[in-house]
Amino acid sequence: MKTLFETSGTLSPAGSRSHICFTVFLPESVDFMAVNFSYTPKILSDPARAELLRQEGEARYFNDPRFPNNGIRDTGVLTNLLTLSFDDARGFRGACHRHPSEQHLFLGKDSASPGLLPGIIPAGLFRVTMSVHAVLTETCEYKISIFQGDS
């Protein structure tokens, strides 16, 4: 497989609720593209910070009349959440709003990962949008690699 694009970086909680766009120029149409995406850590393992964030969330949402309290308090773990969406030269190709912190996605002319539209990827600009839904840990490292290859 031929590497088309690679990037990595570090996010902080200040990056939450933002979108980061990466653009790749494809000089010719591509029949198959594989995308590897990962970020770490997934889980906020600091119990004191997790409890503080829970209390802030309860104060913000459970006491706000727009978000009625149904008596439900999430006692699960708190996690970072980053997701990907794709656009090609013709427009939107889909979104992969999944929770796993390691994902292997593909776009092919005849098939694609769930949430993505199959078809040839035309020459021109191909955009990957990383939606940073939440970074709860002190830092969160991410990596995106895009490859062209055979299906």
Which class of secondary structure composition applies to the elements?
Answer: mainly beta
Strand content: over 45%
CATH topology of the largest domain: Jelly Rolls
Distance between the termini: 10 Å
Unreliable parts: none
Average pLDDT over all residues: 90
Coarse morphology: elongated
CATH architecture descriptor text of the largest domain: Sandwich
Q: What's the total number of strands? A: 8
Spatial order of strands in the largest sheet: 1-8-3-6
What series of H and E elements makes up the topology? EEEHEEEEE
Number of domains: 2
Percent range of helical residues: 10-25%
Task: Please give the radius of gyration in angstroms.
Answer: 18 Å
Question: How is this structure best described in words?
Answer:
With 151 residues, this protein is mainly beta. The chain has two domains: 2-43 and 79-148, Jelly Rolls; 51-77, no CATH class. Helix content is 11%, strand content 46%. The protein is built from one helix and eight strands. Strands 1-8-3-6 form a four-stranded antiparallel beta sheet, with no helix packed on it. The protein has a four-stranded antiparallel beta sheet with strand order 2-7-4-5, with no helix packed on it. A hairpin with a 2-residue loop joins strand 4 and strand 5.
Summed up:
The protein has one helix at residues 47-62, and strands at residues 2-11, 18-26, 32-40, 81-88, 91-96, 102-108, 124-134, 140-148. It has 151 residues and is mainly β.
